[in-house]
Amino acid sequence: MLTDPAFIRRLDSLYLLARKVLGGSLQAERRSTHKGTGITFADYAEYYHGADYRAIDWRVYARFDSLVIKLFELEEDATVYILVDSSRSMESKFLYARKLAAALGYITLKSLDRLAVYGLSDTLNPLLDACRGSAKVLAFLRSLEAAKTSGRDTCFTACSRVFQARHRRRGLVILLSDFLFPDGFEEGLRFLQFHKHDVYCLQIQDDADTRCTWKGDVDLECVETLKRKRVTISPREARQYEQAIVDWNEWLRVFCARNGVGLASTSTDPPFESVLQDILRRGGLVA
Amino acid sequence: MTFLSPALLWSFIALVPLAAIYFLKVRPRKKPTTAYFLWERIFQEKRASSLFHRLRDAWSLILMALAAAAICLALGRPEWADVRKDLLIVIDNSASMSARDGGTSRLDLAKKQANDVVQGLNGNQRAAVAIVGQKLRYLSHLTDNPRELLEAIDSIESSAETLDLTSLPASNWEAAPQDLDGVEAPPSPQAPNQSAQNKHRVLFVSDGGFDAKKLPAHVELLKVGTPLDNVGLVAADIAFLAGDTGRLGIYYQVASTFAEPQKVDLTLWSVADDGHEQLHKVIPLTIKPGTNPSETFELAGAPAGRWLARLDIADALSEDNTAYLVVAKPDPIRVAVESPDPFFLENSVQAFARGEQLLTLVKDSPAVVLGKSVAPKADLAIIFQPIGDSDWWTKLGDEVEAGAARVLVEGHPVLRHLDATSIPFVGARQITPAAGAQVFVADDNGLPLIYKARHGNRTAVVVNIDPVAAEFYFSAWFPVLVHSAVTHLAGRENSLAAAYRPGESVPIPAGRDEILTKIAPPQPIKSDSAATRLETTGAWFRGIEKLGFYTLQNPAGKHTIGASLFSPAESLLNNDEVADKHEAISRGRSPTAWLTLLAIVALAAESILYHRRKVG
């Protein structure tokens, strides 16, 4: 499905929209905070021993009798890491998450940025090794299409450590998940931020996550660990569960806001294009 | 405990599939969840109730098994006792049952006891319901249908009758008169033998307001009520003093069950036709415990008509605090004398005019003509020594010597207080009465000596005697015969008393089978009520059921009678000398009812658990 021509055409239109929204060409123009040898003037600096003579601004020297050198922005290609939650809890939302990942990855590859894609569950599963260029689009989409949910639990913190061990290069880390991690999401997000990654969370939840429509005696079963528990759910317990979900999501929002982590939440109901458009209009994936 | 249908206890086998269904039923639905850890947090807080939760499934099985077992036992129709006889429940409906006992009446207590007994029958025993006051009245058939019995009990209303223990059914339940409330009496046993008695019981539910020694041995007593403090009028009378229509003589007697003497005012009121009451006298009384001696007093300037005697006290029974009395206005019968020698006849009339003013001698418009040796043309006549031709005899012969007199109609009003056989009927003549005549006295040969004949609307009493030759004028029987014959012809042979007890028979003035008498019962009177259309024929009215003033109206005029309780047995409410006397009897709800109730409760509890299981 992700490799259908129709789907790829939808991705194309999204890419064009991204260009229009963000302004200008994205081709290797992701601005770096590092000053370097590019062609765009960035700032002046005092001349120091060993500095490039070619950078001395002689006009300034003529007027002020002071040696300064011109600094230029370093233009470099960015790296985008897409981590898709592929645990069993994402079963009902996995297609939606993959569509969103496909759109984001497509834009990345078209922008000549580097892209790496992983599946998150109890282990970190590589779906696409780091690559760049439009030629990798099809391979990327195929790898997404072939991805399946797996694992017995979601170990976000452990996966973050494995990810960092593999990729020391800083980049934009996009997390697509329901963020219903039994061990919490805080430690993993802090770990990624600690290693200077730009982190953006895309939370996907459906009604089955946020609502409790069962009443009476039920045999609760965890879809990941297959743990079971016989309980009686009265309206009171149902309300408690829904409140717990609301509290959990609110804590995610507060945590992201405090730590400069970008966050967008969506359900599986709206088309994924509209979610992407909304994200792009709000300034892209930069927190 | 025994079971009437033990075979149905095999239904206990149903418990096996029930338990199997239960184990299938309690398996809950599997629900996968993505936020299992959140659910764990929620239910960690509810750990305190987890013990109940674990035991709940076992509770469900226990409750279902309990309900099923109760139903199975109920199907077996268990009984507390196995003695089952046909039961006649007789409820005392006398006036004392209206006494307030602890906020309710004794009758209500009796009805509740009877209800308990009926419910204890469990539909397995036949019973009938009756009430007793002056008479026994059956309210239901002999049936095992509890509903019919309960409806009969519920229909019982208080009455003002006195209790007559002789009205209780005999040991073999002799059939009651068929006209009682239109309910056919329960069938009596074929023969009053011992085996029949063993199959029947008579349960008398009463407050014990009677002499326990007079209670028939076969009647079991279920006593209700406690001793109560009460004061009541147990006797009263009122009448004009002889020869003085301006002074009333009043007689009364009171009784009390208070432990201490009570100071009570007795007030005497006259009641006008429009219901207005006027107080005439207040008599302060000190009423001692028990039945007090009777007392009398006189009251001057008192009118005839309706009177009330009231005891101003709030006690257990209010019905006996008021006596309804009637003072009849003197209305002498107008009597004329037609005779060649009227002296003795006129004096006999005047003798009754001076005292009670029953008769008055007149010359014009007489009601009755008293004649000797004549044949009066009046509508009503008494003829001594018949002579000549008359409508009252068809043939009159010579004088004969009458034989010994014989009374042919014993107890006839004309012969009241009269010893006719001792009268020498000298001068009697051979006589053939008119067709249809009723001969009261005749001699051995059948010669009519005293008879009554009718001709159209006219009636005459003929006395075949020569009073002079027989010296009958000097006989004590002469005025007696005049009095009886005149009052009989005038329809006044039974004078009305000042008051009657409920259930007593009241003589209807001029009442005869062919005369219709309309009766208006006491208040409340509604113009369209059936009570105002009460009618009867005959000489007696036996329908007094309420206390108050009844009005009788027939061609002879309008008469008022007072109905008052006047019964020491009903007023003396200290029933502590009478004790319960009955064999064991199942009362209250049957085991089947309790088992059914238990099953319902168990099912309700299980349904609550099931509801929690289904919808939390």
Features:
heterodimer; A: 287 residues; alpha/beta; six-stranded mixed sheet; two-stranded antiparallel sheet; 10 strands; B: 616 residues; alpha+beta; eight-stranded mixed sheet; five-stranded mixed sheet; 10 helices; 30% strand
Description:
The complex is a heterodimer of chains A (287) and B (616). Chain A has 287 residues and is α/β, with parallel strands linked by helices. Chain A contains nine helices and ten strands. In chain A, the strands form three sheets. In chain A, strands 5-4-3-6-7-10 form a six-stranded mixed β-sheet, sandwiched between helices. A two-stranded antiparallel sheet of chain A has the order 1-2. In chain A, strands 8-9 form a two-stranded antiparallel sheet. In chain A, a hairpin with a 3-residue loop joins strand 4 (114-120) and strand 5 (124-132). The model of chain A is unreliable at 23-34 (pLDDT under 50). Chain B is built from ten helices and 34 strands. In chain B, a hairpin with a 2-residue loop joins strand 27 and strand 28 (458-463). The longest helix of chain B is centred in the N-terminal third of the chain and has 26 residues, at 50-75. Chain B is elongated, with a radius of gyration of 37 Å. The A-B interface holds A 89, 178, 180, 182, 208-209, 214-225, 227-238, 240-241, 244-245, 248 and B 26, 28-43, 46, 53, 56, 612-616. Strand 8 (216-222) of chain A pairs parallel with strand 2 of chain B, so a sheet runs across the interface.
